[in-house]
Every structure is written in C-alpha cells, then in structure tokens.
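Form 12-C: Joint structure prediction
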Amino acid sequence: MSRYKKLIDEANKEHLRSITRRHFLMDCVTGLGAAALGSFLAGCGSSGAGSAIPNAVAADPMAPKAPHFPGKAKSVIYLHMAGAPSQLELFDYKPALQRLHNQLCPPSLLEGKKFAFIRGVPKMLGPQAVFKQHGASGAWISDHLPHFTAMADEVSFLKAVQTDQFNHGPAQLLMQTGSARLGRPSIGSWVTYGLGTENSNLPGFVVLTSGGKTPDAGKSIWGSGFLPSVYQGVQCRTKGDPVLFLSDPEGMDRDLRKASIDAINRINEEEYTAYGDPETLARISQYELAYKMQIAVPEVMNIQNEPDYIHEMYGTQPGKESFANNCLLARKLVEKGVRFVQLYDWGWDSHGTDENLAIDYGFRNKCREIDRPITALLQDLKQRGLLDETLVVWGGEFGRTPMQENRDGKEMPFLGRDHHVEAFTIWMAGAGIKKGFTWGETDEIGYAAVKGKVAINDIHATILQQLGFDHEKLTYQFQGRPFRLTDTGGKVITPILA
Amino acid sequence: MNLCIALVAGNIIAACNSTRKPDFSTEVKPILNKHCISCHGGVKQSGGFSVLFREEALGVTKSGKPAIIPGHPERSEFIRRLTCKDPKERMPQKGEPLTQQEIQILTDWVKSGAEWGEHWAYVPPKAAPVPDQDHAIDYFINEKLEAEGLKAAAPADKMTLLRRVSLDLTGLPPTPEMAKQFAADNSPKAYEQIVDKLLQSPQFGERWASMWLDLARYSDSKGYERDNGRQIWRYRDWVIDAFNRDLPYDSFAIEQLAGDLLPNPTQAQLIATAFNRNTMSNDEGGTQDEEFRTAAVMDRVSTTMDVFQGVTIACVQCHSHPYDPFRFEDYYKLLAFLNNTRDEDTHMEHPKLRLYDSVSNEQVKHITNWVSANGNATQQQDVKEFLTVLEPKRHAHDCDQYINGALADTKYLGIRSGGSCRLPKQELTGKTRFLMNYWSGKPGGVMEIRLDSLSGKTLVTHQLAVTKGRLAINIPIPATTGVHDLYFIFRNPALPKEASVCGVEWFAFREELPGKGAPGYDNIAAKFMEVVNMQPEEVPVMVENPPSMYRPTHIFERGNWMVTGAEVKPDVPHSLNPFPANAPRNRLGLALWLTSDQNPLTARVMVNRLWEQLFGIGIVETLEDFGTQGFTPSHPKLLDYLAYNFMHRYKWHIKPLLREMVLSAAYQRSSVNTPELQEKDPANRLLARGPHFRLTAETVRDQALSVSGLLNANMHGPSIMPYQPENIWQSVWSGEYWKKAEDGNQYRRAVYVYQKRTSPYPSMVTFDGSSREVCLQRRIRTNTPLQALVTLNDPVYVETAVALAKQMHTQSKDPAACIRWGYERAMFKPIPETKLKVLLTLYNKALNTYRDNPAAACKLLQCSADTPEAPSAAALATVANALMNLDEFLTKS
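Section 2 - Result
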C-alpha cells in the first residue's frame, strides 16, 4: 500500500474532482470558464454547488468522513423480510379482529380501495397466533417469536408505518431507495457516500440474502443509482466464493498473486506517467484493494471458528445459506467496520396460495427461522458493546390485510392475507433508539393507522439522523437538482429517540 | 486558481458593462430549470407564478401583479426576490441563493425583453456551411479549441491508432496479419484503406449490435419473477446483419417499429419487429395478463421515445412534463399507436412468426397457391397471415363467468365436468370454421358451445378425442351473423370431480377456405390443418389487430391503468414535427414521423450515440436526455452538421458517417494527457487529445479471446452459455439451468452470451453491462476492485491467459523474447524495456515457484502432471495474466 499511497491519494482526489466538475458542468454551457469555475468552487469546500458533504474534498471516496453532527450510530444492520410479514400475527395484537373472524368484511373498508389479489367481498381473518405482553414495557409479541419476547425491552416498535406501493418490486424499491421507480441510490449507498467506511479492505456496503431467492425487485435495490458505483452494495455469498472470483486461480499462490499485482501496478504507474489519465491511478488503487479484499473477505465470511455458544445462540450451521448465518455475519461485518449490512430474507409473502405461504403454517416456519437469529444478533451486539453504535432495523415492504385473501373471488386452499399498505409494523433498536417503546397505533382491527403515523421516508430520515446526518442536507446533484434519500419528504421520528 | 478567479471576475465585469441579450435556451432556461421550475412549473405553480411558458411567466400572479416586467428588471419582483436579504422573501426559498453570474443572466434577460426561445433540440438541424467538406468535423472542433486557447495533441502513433480504430469499428483488436500489413504500408492512404476494410468486416455488425441491444432491451429471458427463457435470438441476428449490410437508419427504425405493416413484408422485416417484443412478460401465477400487457405497451412508448428521440417521456404518464413541452395526453396519444397489437402477455408469447423449413414451406406455398387461384385478395391475405403467425385468434384468458372451472395457473382453460365459461363478444359473421387448440388425456369428453346464454341455442357439440400433446382441431359451425357471447360447456362424467375435461389454449373463428367443392379441396383443407399443427421454430413478433379486435386507448388517470379516462386517438406531440401528411395513423405512421427529415431529434440522437461510442463522451453528454434538463451540446454546430449530413448526404447510412468520424484528425490524435489539459478540460470535452477510456464489457471479453487465439468467430444462432460459477441462477420456479457451452461455443463473442434478466452474466455486469430489463441509453463507466477480480481470477480469463502463454511459449527458448512477443500480440507495438524488466522479474519469480511446485503449474495450465515444460509455461501464464490486466490492455487508447 505504502508504495502507492501517494499515487492512490492522487487518484482519489482526481476522481472526486472529476465527479464534482461533471456535476457542475451539467448545468453550464460547456467551456473553460465553466470548468474553471467548477474547480474554483470545489476548492472553496463545503458550501459550493459541487460538494454536498463537508470535508469530502480531497479524500478517498470510501475514507471515513465526519457526518453533519456526531451521530449515535456507526453502522446499520437492516433486516428486510422480503415478501412482507404479517404484523397481525407478530406485534399488532387485535382481539377485536378475532371476534370478527369469518364475518364478511364491511363495505366501508373496501370502498375506493385496491388490493393486489382480494376481489369482491372477503372475510375477516382473526389473528392466527397467541399473544402475550412481555417485559417491563408490556409489548405484545406473539408466540411465533418465543425467543424474541426477551427483547421486548430493547426495541422501539413503529406500529403505524404506511407505504403507497402494494406490489413487491416497487414497494421494496421505495423502502430501500426512497423511490418506487428504478434508478435511485439505496440507503446503504447514501450512507457509504456520506460516511465512507472504516475498513477499506472490505466493501463498505455488504448485502446478504437468504430464503433461496433474491428479492423481487432484483439487484437494483442495492444499486448506487446515480451515485458513483463505488457506493453500490456488494453481495457476499455463503456458498462458493463469498465474492465472485475472489479466489486466485488454481495453481497460483498468494505470493505470486502479490507479485503479479505489483508488476501490473508498476507498469500502470509507467502508463500513468505517459498518458496522465487519472483513471489509470484509480485502477492501480482498485487492484490493491482487490488484493486486500481477497484476504479480508474470506476471513470475515468464515463462521467456522466462532465458539459453540455463539452457534447455539444464533442457530447457525456453517456452510449453509441461512438467515441465521447471515445475522452472525452481519455482527462480524459491523465489528470489522463495515458501514451498512443489508440482509434480505425471501419467503414472507403469506397469501395462502399454498402450504408454505399459509399464514398458519409456512409463515410460522419463517418466524421460527428468524426468531433465534434476530434475538441473538441483538444480544450479541449488546454483549460486545456494539449495540450502542449499531442501528438495527427490522421490517418488510408493507403489511398484510386484516381480511382473508380470496384470490379471484374464490375460497383459498389455505389461510392467507393480501398486501396491505395502510399500516404495518417495523422495529428499530440500538444506537440511541428508545428501549422498550412503542410508537403509533392502528384501529381496533389493525386496518388503518390512527396515531403516530410514519412514512417510509420518515424511517430514512431517522436512520440518517442516528448516523449524524440532517437528511435534508445529505444531497447529490443530479440532472440539475439536488437529490436526497428522503426526496421531498421525511421527518425524523423523534418520539423513538432516547 | 488565480486563473479561475480572473475568469469568474471577468465574466461578471463583462456582464455589468453591457446590456447583453442572453440566449434563452442555453443560458436562461437552465437556470430556471435548476432553481425555479420545481415550484413554478409544470407540476406546481406556487404563488400563481410559472416559468414553463412565456404567457405564464409574464402573467398576473396571486399578488395581483406580474412578476416579470419585460425591459425593467428593477421593477420586476422576479429579480428583486433573487437578491433580497430577508430569507423569508428570498428565492429560491429552500435552496442556496443564485450566484452573481446567474442573477446577472436573468437580469439581462428581463432587461432585453424576457423573450422565450425554443429549446435547441426541438428545432430541426439545418445545413451548416463549412469551408472544407472533407475536414468539417475538425473545422468545428478546432474552432472551439482556438476559442479556448488549447493546442491539439499530435497524431497518435500508427499502431496505437490501428488498435483504436479496430476496437471501435469491430469490437476486436486487429488480427496479427492486419497489423503486419498495416505496419509495412507507408502509403498516405494506408489508414483510410484499413478503415474501409474494417467497415466491411462481418465483425462490424456484431460490435454495433452490442450497442443497439442495450437500447432494444434484448434478452434471452422473459423477466419478472419466473424469468423463463425466450427464443428471440433471431432478432439479435437481424440487428447484426442490419449493421453489416448498412441498412439506412430510417429503414432500420421503420422495420423494427412497423416491419409487419410494410407492403408484403419479408421474413426479415417481420423478425425486425421483435424489437418491441423484447419487453418483459410475466408468468407469475395470479398476475393479470392485461396488467402486464399494459406495462409492456407503456414500456414500448418510453423505449420508442428514449431510443429514437432521446427524451424522457415516462413521467408524462402521470402528469405533464415538469420541464419539457410534453402534455399528459401526449403520452396516451403515443400509446394509442402502439396499443393495437395482438400480443397479450400470454405464457406462450403469441403472436410468433413461424419459421417453416423448406419442406414445410412447399406445403405452405401449395396452400397459398390454391387460395390465390380460388379466392380473393382478402382471403389470400387472411390465409397467409394465419399460416405465418396463427393470427387472429383468441386466448383462454379472454373467458369469464367460470362455473366449476378456472383459468388454470392463469394460463389455460381448465373446466371440470358439467362446468362452463363464457367467451364474450365474438364476431361470427361469415365464420363457419371453429379452430381450437386443446389437449385431453381421457376419452369421453364432450364440448358444447351455446349462443348468448348457458341455455341459449346450441351452436355445436363436439366429441373431444384424446390427444398426444396439443392439437388444433377444425370444426364446422353453422352460419351465424353478428357479435355473440359464446358459452362453453364441458362434460365427461367418467372423470373424478376435480379433474378438468381438457386444457384449452386458444380459439379461432375463421371463414371456409375458398374453393370448396372444387377437386382437391379436401386435400388442401387437410394440409392446412397439418401446417397449423406443425411445430416450427418461432419468434415473437408484432401483429396488428384486425378491425374487429380494435383496442381503443384511454388516458390512465395519474398513470393508473385501472382508472381510465377519456379515449384518445393516435397522435404525436405537437411540440415536435407535424405528423406526415397521408401517413397511416398506426405504427407505420409513427415510424415515418420519427424518420421524417423534419424530426428534430432522430438524427441528432443517433449521431450522438455513434460519437459517444468512439470518443467516450457524447457531444450531448446525456445521451438519454436531449430535453431541457439534459446537458447542452459541447459542439452544437458539429452535432447539427453531423445530423444534417446523416440524413441528407449519407441518406441515413451509418458506415460512411462512422467513416467520416474516424478519418477526422480529432479522432486520430494521441491520447496523451497534459497537466494543462487535465486542469482545463478533464473530461476531454473539447477533444484536444484522443480518446482514452476503458473498454466495454463486451470488448473486454472479446479482446481476451482474440488475443489468446481462442476466439470462435462463428456468427449467429442461439445464445451460448460460457463458464459461470455455480449457484448464480436462483430461479426457483423455472427449472431452467445454466448448461456450459462446449465444442468451442464457449469462446464465442460476448454478443452471443445468454442474457438472463434476473441473473445477468456476472463478468458482464461487473463491467457495467446492462441487465436488459428496460432500455438502457448510456452505460456509466466505473472502476472497481470487482473488475480486477474478474480479469485476474474468472476461469474464463485464466483460460485466455494460459492460451496466450502457450503461444508465447512456442516463440523462443528465451523468456524475454516470449514476453516481447506476448506484449506485442496484445498491444501491437514493441514492449518498452522498463516494462519488459518488470515482467521478466515476475517471470523469474513465477518460474522459481513452479519449479519448486510443478503440480501447481499443472493445475494452472490444466495439463497432465508429467509435462516437463509446465513450470516455464506456467510462469509465462502468470505473465500473460498480468499482461491481460494492464491498464493499457483494458483501455482504448
């Protein structure tokens, strides 16, 4: 590294400057006056049109950067249950819904509403779980999550989250990028853009998937949109190479690989001297980083050496692709300084179309798969003193209806609930979030939010707030206007802040 | 820095001393768009003030007074608000204040009368006088360089230029023979001749098709959740061939948008229409075909405007364009052109062009000859169309009112014994033949069709024979007139309660073949059904609805397809050129409008795409946005010159246009950068130096294959699956899997690599390739460690390194000579001694390593353990792997 440090610094500086200029030039007539003005402003620092982040100028794009104010969180672990779990079987206890079970849905709940699959008049579906209050906070948690009940006094529940997208793809995009359309940076990209990473040997933004499938919205939900691609999420796999093509070719040892990267970079240095293209310097630094990732990634992705009690706690099985393994990996990654760890677990779309998607069968199994891991993750972070600086978010892309799904107006073979946008539950924990607290309330059947309503961009604003950002000021100039994660909305959910 | 301050100050002073009239579209409009229009424009008009149109800007605002008084900036509230100190009053209210320079431009503009101008891109390009037709490009480039006081770089050295132009025109480095010949040719025409040779090479089409396929969102899979395979590679081959035969761009556009509507279209012209069948289709259970058909048609509207007009129209599906002169209705009027096709998001992807083999074709001819001899023109056309694309027909999903039955898996009719369904609104006048595609495994099934109600008159009763797979049957039905609802009742008492009587995919109601009663008729009728039941290769194509199946188009309120508003007729946005007189109001008319020489955008947008491929950056950097939010062109006159000549001088031919570009001095310059240029023009917008940027995903692969000698140059055919790591495809519902290509097919060019939307080929996406879900107009080049991992470690690239090393190994006993040869094979010029030294050191280290561990050498080379030369070969492979990772190798210089 040291050999190239100067060159790399120069490369990063150039890269940043070229980005800055590009975006300045966007709005100007092309010409040297404009270009010169761009460099002039970049030189002035944070208040110029070119730079939205204080102290960002002349730094490695992934180097740690100071946020707007000291944040409580250093890292984020976001647990996204793709498919959208039912709040009515987990946290939002509605005895009144039980009393209405099997009765026809009143027309007032259907008029002017659209559902993904419900047609005609469905029946109401009572909670398919047994609820009890837990902890000093008395939070209602169902018997689907027996381990997690012990966490009742660690988390803040948001019970009146609302979205406006009732199909998975767009709703997942909205939840993860702030827009239902393709092309915006994901939360993790914004965060690494704003804060950089504390371990340059690992990607700053790591994505782990489980449940046998990538989320419906595809890989775009961890894309960097219009931000430079260094900020996109890197998917780490638990089978095969953790990052594609991470292993050296068979028959080439580490020493030789080191020697060959040195040779490549030495020649590239000469190439830079000859051609003067800053991209060449960037390439030198990327080859250095690739070499370091080859060592650091397998190390951190290996859970074999974790002690037995940890495996017991999470329910991990090394070598398997599982949500439990991913939770343990998430802890290891934030411990190593990874800024944003995004988990996707697929299989939560409990329509009742088959056994695995039945609210009283497959859903219960999915809950079992996550119960120990999410509990262990919070406990493990806590025992390592990491929970205070790690923000953990759990939730889906929308909620489920209090009505039983009647796809195509027919009786379904299994019990299921349709997609529901008006109210669902998300919880947050750690990093300055109140412990044992509930914010927001739904009506007595869990259909509509009545108090403490929270919009998706409020969640984004709160995540950024905990990281030390004013969400209205973390911006990026694109197509003639400053874009931000919270777009034109977003309010920090102050009641849940400790 | 001093220079900058001087420049800035200079601008302001210059502005203060004069009453300059700023150019509206390049100076004023960008400021309005950036700072004002989001609150005072197409979406919102705060304070009753809008700057979208002049009459709005000068109109009376909520305050009761106009905000802009032309000629009087000092009396205009609009100007006062920009400079006032009170943050409550100062505009923009939420953003940073405008710069002095911006305020000055707006002040001058109001002073000079606040006149509006049309956005440059919406005015057709005009012929521009140039002193020398042969050096026109350089005339425009040099004009700007002189104005900015920059000196152009010297020409690139000969072999660097050869590599550059070969990579650009064919996507491949030159062959060693070509390089040798060119090196020896000192005639002044040598470069021109090599350019002509490259333009004629069949690889030309493959390279430029790669660019087009991103725009056409070409993919070998259907997309969405299940993402099953789709056989549409013949479209990809059509694009390759179209570039190779230099099909003029207007025809290229017309055939893709409306080849089927041309008189007597050829098979190739029908395949071309697959352009708009590259939309995604959804096989997920529970989804409504109509919803995803609508999504596909809306994609066609956006893609057509994106590809040919370079304007963003997708936002107009919900509201008028916030910045550009496109109104909400314009979107749906465009949609009306594209909404009248037969495709309906069915699982089988009808309609599909049937590609009969020569024997079957004889049979088809036999039938059509009969129809020509015995029938009228309409009948000829009708029979021909049915045998070509099996249309018009109706799909099972048109049925409703199911009793004891359903649309099974939302795809096929599955009615249980005694059950029924309705096929609404079928025109029966003249239709005396009923065709149905069905399958049944159990004998005893009966189908009954009743008219207008379940208890209505029986049209026909038919015994359903057991089939082997799917079968189309042809049943006579009594002559009936008018449009009727048809009720289908299925019975088979022998079946268990839950079993369907049969499966049904489609129905067709047809006229009798002409010539009934004539000798040979029965034979022809039988042949007709034989052909219908053939299973030839098929390609999804566009087919227009017959008049009886016309689809009216409605506005969707706020873009929601469930809430329809007023009906609209096909029309084009009035802010662009008028619809051509006498052109039909269908897709063909739309294509003619786009390719009219009065269209201000089509030629500019394409010329700019081609330019960007060569120079790395468009004259308009935002290839995807020529609207007022896009970048202004770096060389407006050059863009218009090229666009005008593309249409009028080259008659839309692409090859001569590219030829002119690569023969320019600007293209042939050395790409050596200087600190001065880096400071003044970091992105090389002014082209004082030659292009220098990383190769595309496709070229990274193709170059490695070419240089290693592994490249299989075979053209065309089904897509191939080269090596990819396991567990990449996670299509749990589809059952399809990645089957590694063999027999040299794994070494074919990137354009033939299988494209799966939800799981793109990893090394391609890592180098910024598109996932092809929607039209991608511009790839943003990135530089990441993951790219290094691909070219260092991906077994595909290790294999190419080993192959190159094997060639190097045979050159000499002297490793230095081998490395010299290898470098020259890759870079087409001799290796500098300093670089040779570095690589020799690497070689020696590797040789020591592999001598100590010959087994490792054999692993790298994948050779048998007793190969005596393995250590030296493996050491060369290590060097070759490094060579193929050099910046200069991955860069077009």
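Section 3 - Comments
Chain A has one domain: 57-246+304-496. The first helix of chain A runs from residue 2 to 25.
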